[in-house]
Specification:
By secondary structure, the protein is α/β, with parallel strands linked by helices. It is built from nine helices and seven strands, in the order E-H-E-H-E-H-H-E-H-E-H-E-H-E-H-H. Helix 6 links the parallel strand 5 and strand 6. Helix 1 runs parallel beside helix 2, helix 4 crosses helix 5 and helix 6 packs parallel to helix 7. It is globular, with a radius of gyration of 17 Å. The two termini are about 35 Å apart. About 50% of the residues are buried.
């Protein structure tokens, strides 16, 4: 796996922190990592965006942002309102291909969910994954309501001939409720793909060194970690 596309079941589900954790675990395993953010929205030119946050948490990674729009909207809408050109799938594919030449792993972090529009033609992150022939990692919420949007995301991937690499819970609560506990078993069924990790809530506020040390313990071996879904579920039975 040289390219992994990271999407969420929606906004504010922990996608950037999961991307940082995957990057940190890969670096700890001795891999060179690049993080590509095609479209950053809701951040001014002077403010740090998602790439800067991944670099802060994960450490020795290469970060690249292709476009930035100030309003916190879908990329196509934000680009239109800013009077700027949108970023298109072909540009993203080309940028990722260049990064692949010099890195073992390239993480492409989308904006919001899988089918958020990138441009006026209706292109989405799914189109990018198709061009890259890359698997897609889905970051999901832990609790009530997550099964439907996870299933919809997975169905959208399958209908386009794309592979869901698995699901990572983006913010596992310190005190999980009944629905959250049940979702440990139900999320893989909803996605038709394995549960590959659970990042604890507040992980992004940890000191960077602590985050990097802990990241492999939150992720399964497929993501360069040591996390085990069955063992995790048994601890929360």
């Amino acid at each position: 796996m040289s390219v992994l596309v990271v999407t969420g079941t929606g906004t504010e589900v922990g996608k950037t922190v999961v991307t940082a954790a995957v990057a940190a675990a890969a670096v700890a395993a001795g891999r060179s990592v690049a993080v590509l953010k095609p479209a950053q929205t809701g951040v001014t030119a002077q403010e740090p965006g998602d790439v800067a946050e991944v670099e802060r948490l994960a450490g020795a990674v290469t970060g690249l942002e292709l476009a930035r729009y100030p309003e916190p909207l879908a990329p196509a809408t934000a680009a239109r309102r800013a009077g700027r050109a949108p970023v298109r799938p072909k540009e993203i594919e080309q940028a990722a291909a260049r990064l692949v030449e010099s890195h073992d792993l390239v993480l492409v972090e989308g904006a919001g969910g899988l089918l958020v529009r990138l441009d006026e033609a209706g292109s989405t992150l799914a189109d990018v994954a198709g061009l890259l022939d890359a698997p897609v990692l889905v970051v999901a919420q832990p609790g009530l309501g997550t099964l439907n949007i996870t299933a919809l995301t997975a169905e959208a991937l399958r209908s386009r001939g794309l592979r869901c690499a698995g699901v990572v819970i983006g913010s596992w609560p310190a005190v999980p409720d009944l629905a959250t506990l049940c979702n440990l078993a139900d999320l893989p069924e909803a996605a038709g793909a394995p549960l590959l990790g659970a990042v604890p809530e507040g992980a992004g506020t940890l000191p960077a060194a602590t985050f990097r040390t802990a990241a492999p313990s939150w992720l399964a071996p497929e993501l360069s970690g040591g996390w085990d879904a069955e063992r995790f579920a048994s601890q929360h039975h």
